[in-house]
Amino acid sequence: MTNLSEGEVANQSRVKTSDSSVIFRRNRALGYVSNHIPAVVRYIQRRKDNLITTCIGRSFQVYTASHFRLLHVGGQHPDDITAMATDRWHIYTASNKCIYAWRAGKHVRHIYRGHSKNVHLLLPFNRHLIAVDEANVLKVWDIRDEEVYLEIPFKPEEFLVTAVAHPPTYLNKIVLGSKQGQIQIWNIKDNRLVYTFNGHASRVTCIEPAPAIDVVAVGHQDGTTTVLNLKYDEILMEFKQDWGAVSKITFRTDGPPIMATASTNGYVAFWNLEEKKIASQLQAHEDSVTTAICLPNEPLILTTSPDNSMKLWIFDMTDGGARMLRIREGHTAPPLCIRYHGMNGQTILSSGEDSSLRSFSTISETLNKSLGKASYNRKTSKKKNRFEEDSHRMPPIVEFTTELTREKEWDNIAAIHSGTIQTTTWSFHKNRMGEHRLIPAQFTNKNRQDFRTETTCVTLTHCGNFVIIGYSNGEVERFNIQSGIHRASYGKPAHSAAIRGIACDNLSQVVVTGCSAGHLKFWHFKDKVEKPFAVKKLTEGIVLMRCHRESAMIGIALENFVLLVLDMDTKVIIRKFEGHSAKINDVAFSPDSRWLISASMDATIKVWDIPSSYMIDHFRVEKPCVSLTMSPTGDFLATAHVNNLGVYLWANKMLFNQISLRSINPNSVAPFVGLPTNMADQLSLEEAVEELSMDVDDDEEKDDETLGDEVNLNYETPEQLSKDLITMSGVAVSRWQNLLDLEIIKKRNKPKAPPKAPKQAPFFLPTVAGLEMKFDVSNAKTDEDSESRVFKTTNLSNLTAFGKLLEETASTEDYEKCVIFLKQIGPSMVDFEVKSLHPIGGGTVKAMIQFLKTLKYMFESNNNFELAQSYLSVFLRSHSTGLIEFPGVISTLEDVSVVQESSWQKIEQNLMYGMGVVAALRNFVQ
User: Which DSSP symbol is given to 3?
Assistant: First the structure.
């Protein structure tokens, strides 16, 4: 049941790549919501909520309909998912000619193999699963036995299957739609064609059963929707939308007789079935609407689209129309520039080819937000007709810069756009585009479109008051970002070639500009801006510049793929790095300015150690990285890649492990590392299959009769999960921690009045040694015939009860009783018992040796670790140098020392890793 075919193994071995480099380990991807595969919805009784499953390429995501909260991400498939379906028990996904049944969205329960081509249609049918592949073969699978119950091949030229549905109350029957426009009813139990409908000649795109019995709605390629009565072969009504093919059909079940049809251009039409006319319409997405599902008995409709968005609409408008209730979206086009915003490392700003600026949270998807799309006229764009293209949309943002200093007072983001002269301002605090369009005075006339000058680079001063902009004609201008007023020009012009980089120091005293001719010029920020006070000529033209203000260092990428590091204070090139073989796309400093990280069009990412001037890490990715940024806390590296919609996070392993870095030849071949997936802890398909092989069929019947998400198991945590794991006792911290400071605690709690003497017992009643007075009745004569009631002692030993228990272990070697005894008594009693082991205190050498053997037993068993450490500390502190008199005790103590040191090394090896994880989590919470 779990053996992979040879083709699957070859495929998995081909796509399987390393998950980390020397420093960075792939963590997860942000910004993926949906693609062209329709989403599926199922109701979970236990949650009292609907779960939405969307496809995101090679895996799927499960959301709650109530809050659009991401529950989990499915495992990685060997190839892209081609179809999805769901029923009460499983989520079914088709990929690479196989079908996978996922339990609880995480574990592979069944795998169905046998299709010769990829599956594009899935329909759960009670205990069976109907699948149609691209070879036009319909197979009915037995879900539990993973066997083909029925196989029906169709001739593509006669009946090419394009849609499948099961009308309610139709026993063992399914409805198939074809490319030729025909509709057929098949009885899958008898393998018999029941009836053929020849109503419409256009391709059938979707079939949806209506709430009424015997009625289905059929969508066609030409935009026609027919409501068909299957019983009488009668077309009850027919609608046609002018937006193109019908991609999806759904019916409201909460009362109003409304049918919704989705189109391939993003519009949804709502038809009143009683009045047989259109009721309302809305533009739901910018791309084709691939999912349109009315939630059962609720005035809600869910839509998804390849534009990477998922929306929930509610019918509460006065005209019966729908308005947006919830949304989860990402970039509709690949990101071009990403930057961390803030000092906590929890927010990433991203601009994409869709002209939008978005904020992604590294903590939770619910914190993601959109700052809107760039527009020449925001008010006009908001008022535009929803059926018209927005003519005011600006070109994509190719670079932006942010500052926190004045974030809540005025705009704190400045962005430049591809091919335009305008620089736009944005407010992160208000989550919107600002009002200012920063344009130099010489380009504000009516003929500015005749100029081919465009903005090339931008930077904000650390104070948050000024934005400095460079242009392709060599000019450098300074604006006040609060008012948008022009304040200064550097030079006339500053350079004779296009400006490629601008940097400003932390105190806003010096401005550094670089051009494509290879000139670096240093300007006073305020005074004497007509001429630079220093000029430096480089060997090649500059591609880009990135500044680390705290260390006053500038990273410079040249046209010959060389990286330079410039010290702003001394104006000296302090480092030169060679190793890239293609254009350098972006450069970033680590927070401590020790590393310089660069990404190139040769699809490599390299890490350069500035103090040692060596390359210490490099790796190659599937697609070139176009932008990268390092977290201010140093825990993550974020990257954006060509033709990828997501933002990818790479974890810094140096925070969690002790890694010895060494120099690497920059010209050596970089190892290939796969891009991060959608969740850090998701299972790969191979791991999920391994779980399937371990999951025997003992509970198969139980799982088929109950929901996979609702199986309740009574599980009791064992005292120790494994003998190889060091386990704590679980007792209160005060029970063992106070042992180390017991004398201080006693002095602090010393009563003001002297303690009262206990009532004296008769001299002939022996007592047990200890803090509490107890009579020793262990040797009492119990012979009923004896008249004497005087207790007789058998020895004169003063051992406590614990001491006698220790001496018994010499023959039984049952140390667990001693451990249980110590765990039950308090700190003062433990201290007394340990001190009483010495012969001077009434104990014996034998008892001391057995006590040390008990500690050795605790260390070897890896259980009650902290108690053993505390007891050993009390023993050494109480007896210290007095142990020299007893060679047997010293010998046993040496054995305990060896075991204790071995146990402590197990913790010490992973202590730094654990501290790093806790520190990272604490930073996230803050």
Answer: P
